[in-house]
Amino acid sequence: MSKQTQIRRTTVPQIVARKGGEPIVSLTSYHAHTAAIVDKYADFILVGDSLGMVMHGMESTVGVPLDLMIMHGQAVVRGTQHALVVVDMPFGTYEESPGVAFRNAAKIMKETQCGAVKLEGGKRMAETIRFLTERGIPVMAHIGLTPQSSNVMGGFKTQGRDEEGWAAIEEDAIAVAEAGAFAVVLEGMVEPLAAKITKSCPIPTIGIGASVECDGQILVLEDMLGLNEWTPKFVKVYGNLGPAIEGAVKAYADDVKSRSFPTEDEVYR
User: Fold this and answer.
1) What is the pLDDT of residue 267?
2) Residue 3 CB: number of other CB atoms within 10 A?
3) pLDDT confidence tier of residue 210, bands split at 50, 70 and 90
4) Which end of the chain is less enclosed by CB atoms within 10 A, N or C?
5) d(CA 8, CA 152)
6) Neighbours of 260 (CB within 10 A)
7) pLDDT one-digit tens code per residue, 46-62
């Protein structure tokens, strides 16, 4: 009988238990080597469909295919040992019906070995969330600014600026919680509304451009590392890797052109 190394990851119930407690730490990751670094500090890692824009130069997340999410999800799972890995369900893989959503969610979980999936939408997705969770698939919900619906929303606009619209967003939060979601991402939301939802919602809220009062926070890794030319206003940039990488590439190119490499004697002695 072969001996297998047991990997102890953060579980969905452990995330749920953090409601109102120590803030939940999360970042996105799309490949094994960055995931291995993030894994040391994050409670969960999201393989976000933002990879379409960050990694593949797409204009939005709408064009991301299921197989691409699975490929990146596999890499992140292989690179981690501790964090719960959550994989986004891309546009068009869950909206049609609960049955279609289950088929695609099961494919993601079976082929990546991730611990949960995430999908966008509030009340309109409650039936699907319930269908998935009742069949053993943990679901993280996502309300407020939902990038897959940016074409309908007219772009990436902060939600809740008009207080008259708060009730509908609050209803979305309660609906996904009652349907069985174990946590909900609040994106691009005015702080008073995000704080209010966090207090009333029974499951952990994960903020991104929302409120420090959320139960946790998530950022796109490349944004907080300073790898992108443009960064959302709500992102605190913790690194300056874009210019650093460019400097290193330029130095390498200069060395190639000047033949400034170690000599054969220095390499093999």
Assistant:
1) 56
2) 5
3) very high
4) N
5) 41
6) 10
7) 999 999 999 999 988 99
**Marked catalytic residue, from 120, 170, 187, 222:** 187
CB 237 within 8 A of CB 227: no
> What is the reported pLDDT for 233?
84
Strands (E), the chain: 24-28, 44-47, 84-88, 116-118, 139-144, 183-187, 205-208, 216-219
d(C-alpha 58, C-alpha 90), whole Å: 14
What is the rounded distance in angstroms from the CA atom of residue 70 to the CA atom of residue 90? Answer: 10
Please tell me the predicted confidence (pLDDT) of residue 28. 98
Largest separation between any pair of C-alpha atoms in the chain: 74
pLDDT digits (tens, 9 = 90+) for 67-90: 999 999 999 999 999 999 999 999
* Separation between Cα atoms, residue 3 and residue 6, nearest integer Å: 9
Q: What is the pLDDT of residue 3?
A: 54
CB 220 within 8 A of CB 200: no
Identify whether 191 is a catalytic site residue.
no
Residues in the chain: 269
The CA-atom distances, in angstroms, between 79 and each of 40, 44, 64, 82, 235 are 11, 13, 22, 10, 25
Task: Transcribe 25-78 into DSSP letters.
Answer: EEEE--SHHHHHHHTTT-SEEEE-TTHHHHTT--SSSTT--HHHHHHHHHHHHH
Q: Which amino acid is at 4?
A: Q
